[in-house]
UniProtKB/TrEMBL annotation:
Name of the protein in its database record: ABC transporter ATP-binding protein
Keyword Nucleotide-binding assigned: yes
Classification via PROSITE patterns: ABC_TRANSPORTER_2 (PS50893)
Source organism, top-level taxon: Bacteria
Keywords assigned by UniProt, alphabetized: ATP-binding, Nucleotide-binding, Transport
ABC transporter domain: residues covered: 50-271
Pfam family, one: ABC_tran
Taxonomic path: Bacteria, Bacillati, Actinomycetota, Actinomycetes, Kitasatosporales
MF terms in GO: ATP binding
CDD domains listed in its UniProt record: ABC_KpsT_Wzt
SUPFAM superfamilies: P-loop containing nucleoside triphosphate hydrolases (SSF52540)
Amino acid sequence: MADPQSTPAPAHPPTPTPTVVVDEVHVTYTVGGGSAGGRGAATAALSRMLRRGEKRPTGRRVHAVKGVSFVAYRGEAIGLIGSNGSGKSTLLKAIAGLQPVERGQVYTDGQPSLLGVNAALMNDLTGERNVILGGLAMGMSRTEVRERYDEIVDFSGINEKDDAISRPMGTYSSGMGARLRFSIAAAKSHDVLLIDEALSTGDARFRRRSQQRIDELRAAAGTVFLVSHSNSTITETCERALWLEAGTLRRDGPAKEVVAAYEEFTATGATTGAK
């Protein structure tokens, strides 16, 4: 008879590690009313100076995210779906710390990175210079950027037909720019990577490479959030999905189940008013 004391205890799965906690978050912002439109930052600043002391229109208040709560765990890839204007991109910005939260709290373990390094990329500079600037903005050293430069350019695929990397980024199509931004951001591992629509650009080969890279980032103990209007991209890339509609979280669960519910919802024409 075996000694009961020598019987090993059953193995328990490791406790998942939370990386993002969103607790009853509300996000509001104001549109219109005193905005400078497309006149540029300098003109807008001058207009504000000239209008000091004047009573300005208050604009329209938008309640973009309404009491959203969820917990994301290390190693997850989570898709965000919903109609246009449902609050998906606003929620990503709030998680990244780029959009103030009116009520509720966002807790993150590590530094979230919103895909795009948009603020660092400059249209009048070449793609080559933007790879360097973008890499530095993502926290890489100059040595790391040099070591990964060819990999970044090759991954983006923008140089396959001509020497696009040596041209100003302002000459790129929106798809080329999005692919280069994804390639820069994906060259570095992230605690939390937030991707907004980048995988909807490019051909099937680029999407496959992108999905493979997301899997690698998750395997490196990261968490990935993906916003996309392509339901197939969500189900192929993510095992979990959050469905936002009119700023509220309607469903949180396995990606295929949530996408199926959303597709049934849209098929009924229930998304009236979505833009």
